[in-house]
Design goal:
The chain has 184 residues and is mainly alpha-helical. It is built from seven helices and two strands, in the order ααααββααα. A two-stranded antiparallel sheet has the order 1-2. Helix 1 (5-44) packs parallel to helix 7. 18% of the residues are buried.
Length: 184
């Protein structure tokens, strides 16, 4: 059996491109999480930022971090900022789910024979462990996604724009404490 090295060379290039896209996604997400802390610190307006950072980052789950920000926002900001934050929270939650899939998927090369020509396809998919559990549940099976290189590049771009959007939002937040409510 002769081996078509050009095909394999192309699949190696595509595999490396997928790995680079995954790296861009994970790096972009780290930026998003970092800005989330900046927003949280503005909402809380702490005197000891180190203690606040340790408390905030003790939450491993991104959803918990979002809830911390959501809980702190009304203490410092008015409805205008709260409404803007609520719309960003929805985008962040959706992006977090996609990021989690990608972070735990594996890169697969599949050889297909189309009209006598072998072609390798490279993509991300769930691990066999995840797929095995998903087969039991029809709804989960429908949610199993595969990501091509183009998909990953699109997601990477979306996360870069989301990072810029929340960074812009963060810079629009006023510094300083909201005055305490008047008590009668």
């Amino acid at each position: 059996m002769t081996r078509n090295y050009d095909v394999y060379d192309e699949s190696i290039k595509e595999t490396l491109a997928i790995h680079q896209s995954m790296g861009a996604i994970l790096t972009s997400w780290a930026h998003v999480e970092d800005i989330l802390f900046v927003i949280f610190s503005k909402a809380v307006d702490p005197e000891n930022v180190l203690a606040l950072s340790v408390a905030f980052h003790s939450q491993v789950n991104f959803s918990n971090k979002l809830e911390m920000v959501k809980a702190a926002f009304p203490c410092t900001f008015d409805d205008e900022f709260i409404e803007k934050w609520d719309s960003l929270t929805s985008k962040l939650s959706k992006s977090s789910k996609i990021r989690n899939k990608i972070a735990h998927y594996i890169c697969v090369t599949e050889v297909k024979d189309i009209k006598g020509e072998k072609r390798e396809y490279v993509y991300l998919r769930p691990t066999f462990y995840n797929m095995a559990s998903a087969v039991k549940d029809e709804r989960a099976k429908q949610n199993m996604s595969q990501y091509s290189l183009k998909d990953l590049q699109d997601i990477s771009n979306q996360l870069l724009y989301l990072g810029k959007e929340i960074m812009h939002f963060s810079s629009s937040l006023p510094n300083g404490k909201k005055p305490p409510p008047v008590r009668f």
